[in-house]
Design a protein that fits this description.
The protein is of the alpha/beta class and 255 residues long. The chain has one domain (2-115, 124-240): Nucleoside phosphorylase domain (Rossmann fold, 3-Layer(aba) Sandwich), CATH 3.40.50.1580. The chain is built from 5 helices and 11 strands. It has helices at 64-73, 131-140, 161-169, 182-188, 213-237, and strands at residues 2-6, 16-22, 35-40, 43-49, 78-87, 97-99, 102-106, 145-146, 149-153, 174-176, 192-202. Strands 1, 2, 3, 4, 5, 6, 7, 8, 9, 10 and 11 form an 11-stranded mixed sheet that branches. β3 (35-40) and β4 form a beta hairpin. α2 (131-140) packs across α5. The protein starts with a strand and ends in an 18-residue tail after the last helix.
């Protein structure tokens, strides 16, 4: 079973047959919305709108723990997350798709773990994104960018040019507000996690054009069909059994 996290409309993926909608509660509260359960071919798939169908939940208020816990409750083993980001690296242009391989967390006030005690685990997060899923998606579309570091900020405001300059010095290639703690929470539950990052705009100060939310929304809409096709092909081509280390991410964790 593969989970998909993104904006409204992404569940209209080619070949995605909706079976039911499931409303869950979790030990961590309510997820962002109902889970849309269906299948693509003979593969089970579950979609969740990260910000709700009405896009009414800002990034710093998303209940990331409930969302990830709900996926596991439904039997999901892999998660494909779609994230809108601003391009920092010179060759990341609006409309481009990036498959990042690293992340830097600059968030401040989010619930970052399922293990608040008495159980304590320090997961290995050297590979935030599943290498098996990264390899699979890169084999499907050779026009996507292979690798890059996602710098995750708190939001909901956009960054200043000075902050973007700092993030660039810190090694950030793109900036967004939803990558963390989503990725690390998936790792804690031994779920494979992949980020498909859509460059919706140049980050502040990278271009002389003033950044607007309209620009972000319009660019994301223009890229949606391409992302849908990419997800559909990826789900069809994923091996049935996971041969990556994600499923064993807690095996050697230090308590």
């Amino acid at each position: 079973m593969v989970g998909i996290i993104g904006g409204s409309g992404l569940y209209e993926i080619p070949g995605f047959e909706v079976v039911e909608k499931v409303k869950l509660n979790t030990p961590y509260g309510a997820p962002s919305d109902e889970y849309v359960v269906g299948k693509i071919g003979d593969r089970g798939a579950v979609f969740l709108a990260r910000h709700s169908r009405e896009h009414s939940i800002p990034p710093h208020k998303v209940n990331y723990r409930a969302n990830i816990w709900g996926f596991r409750t439904l039997g999901v083993k892999r998660i494909i997350a779609v994230n809108a980001v601003g391009g920092i690296r010179d060759d990341f242009c609006p409309g481009d798709i990036v498959i990042p391989n690293q992340i830097i967390d600059f968030t401040k006030n989010r619930q970052h773990t399922f293990y608040d005690g008495p159980e304590v685990y320090h997961i290995d997060f050297s590979e935030p994104y599943c290498p098996e899923m990264r390899k699979a998606v890169l084999s499907i579309d050779n026009t996507v960018h292979d690798g890059g570091t996602y710098a995750c900020t708190e939001g909901p405001r956009l960054e200043t040019p000075a902050e973007i300059a700092f993030l660039k010095l810190a090694g950030g290639d793109m900036v967004g507000m939803t990558g963390m703690p989503e990725a690390s929470l998936a790792k804690e539950l031994t779920l494979c996690y992949l980020c498909i990052a859509v460059i919706t705009n140049y980050a502040a100060g990278i271009s002389t054009t003033r950044l607007t939310t309209t620009e972000v929304i319009e660019t994301m809409k223009a890229s949606t069909e391409r992302v849908k096709l990419l997800i559909s092909e990826l789900i069809k081509n994923l091996p049935e059994e996971r041969s990556c280390s994600c499923k064993d991410s807690l095996k050697d964790a230090r308590a």
